[in-house]
Every structure is written in structure tokens, then in C-alpha cells.
Amino acid sequence: MRDWKKKLTSRKWWLSVAAFVTMLIVYFTGDTENAEKVSALIMAGATVIGYTISEGLTDAAHKDDNE
Length: 67
Known about the structure:
Blueprint: H1 4-8, H2 11-29, H3 32-66
């Protein structure tokens, strides 16, 4: 089974997702401005997801240390 926590916190993975979606938008609509906006939203979401998972893992590790 894949390690989804690692994937969801990977900037490279999110950048590849953003690039793929951006290229799809440009290909189907030719609208680079909207493609850039969507790419920015994906990367912003990736930042939040990565931070949240990382903090959760850190908190869980510290909880185990304190027990």
C-alpha cells in the first residue's frame, strides 16, 4: 500500500498535479490566466494539507514521547 501521508506532504507531487491540471486547462480552453489561477489554488491547498498532516504527525510523535 502506498504511503499517502508522504505523498500528500510532497511538494514535488503537488507541483506535478498543479502542472498537469494547468496543462489540461490550457489545452482545452487556451486560457492561460485561469490556468495560472487554478494552479495557484492547488499549490495553496497543498500547502495547507502538507502543513496539517506534518503538524499532526509531529503532535502524535510528541504524544507518544510523553506517555
